[in-house]
Amino acid sequence: MAGFLLDTHIWLWMSITPQRLGRVVRRRLEDPRAELWVSPVSIFEAQAAYRRGRLREIDNFTLWVSDSLSRFQIRSADMTRDVAMEGHTFSLPHGDPADHVLVATARAYGLVLVTDDERIIESQAVSILVND
């Protein structure tokens, strides 16, 4: 079974509104053999959304992150030198640094990126599991 790097919105949906996940994605992510990974950049993005009041379902952000990572047995795909160096081997059609880090992380760790971000999908810069 493949390892999956969860794009920030996929991780949030999985944890808060799982009905937003497509049937195939949900089945693949719930497979006990699947390895789920989150980049620290996703925690940073989720924290920014929380501070802006966009994640009203979360009472305590720190506890929510800990609970989500534990509940879904999500590993941390940390920023490493290999991730940083991978960033120059592809291009995306936009300048969002978080998306660049996520793609570089998936590539460096050999993970499939789970996303429905059309710009990343269209770039073909990384293996993708599209949220259908």
Fold topology:
Layout lengths: L2 E4 L1 H9 L6 H8 L4 E4 L1 H12 L9 H11 L2 E3 L4 H6 L10 H13 L2 E4 L2 H6 L4 E3 L2
Parallel strand pairs: 1-2, 1-4, 2-3, 4-5
Helix pairs in contact: 1-3
Features:
Rossmann fold, 132 residues, 5-stranded parallel β-sheet, 5 strands, globular
Summarize the structure.
With 132 residues, the chain is α/β, with parallel strands linked by helices. It contains 7 helices and 5 strands, in the order E-H-H-E-H-H-E-H-H-E-H-E.
How would you describe this protein?
The longest helix is centred in the last third of the chain and has 13 residues. α1 crosses α3. This protein is of the alpha/beta class and 132 residues long. It has a 5-stranded parallel sheet. Helices cover 49% and strands 14% of the residues. The chain has one domain: 5'-nuclease (Rossmann fold), CATH 3.40.50.1010. The chain contains 7 helices and 5 strands; from the N terminus they run βααβααβααβαβ.
Overall body shape: globular
Unreliable parts: none
Largest sheet: 5 strands, parallel
Strand content: 5-15%
